[in-house]
Amino acid sequence: QVDLVESGGGMVQAGDSLRLSCAASGRTFTDYVMGWFRQAPGKEREYVASIDKSGDTTYYADSVKGRFTISRDTAKRTVYLQMNSLKPEDTAVYYCNADWSPYGVYWGQGTQVTVSS
To answer: What CA–CA distance (Å, rounded) separates 23 from 106?
Structure first.
């Protein structure tokens, strides 16, 4: 079991930046592949980015590649999503995800990001 708490969302203008944080408590942080997903109104939740257990390898959805950066700090048990050059289509609730396959997948409560044009 792991508890995830996201923070850092807000309302910004197109072209601005935000950094989301996700603090994890519970089991050993390095047991999990960590990721970010998002869900816009009326749409299904979609994958944004993920980072492996060691923090050495990252993956991104094509829609955010080159603009978003995922990272993790093991000492702080926190995963980050640096979002630059934000667009109105990035508006969504952003969810942190901890994947402890095959034992379980855990989600945070989400943080709202709103980008105005």
So the answer is: 13
29-38: average pLDDT: 95
DSSP lists the bridge partners of residue 38 as 46, 94
In the three-class reduction of DSSP (H, G, I as helix; E, B as strand; rest coil), residue 82 is classed as strand
Q: Is the pLDDT of residue 108 over 90?
A: yes
Sign of the CA dihedral running 110, 85, 53, 103: positive
Cα 75 from chain centroid (whole Å): 18
The count of other CB atoms within 10 Å of the CB of residue 104 is: 12
**Contacts with 116 (C-beta within 8 Å, 6 or more apart), sequence order:** 11, 12, 13, 14, 88
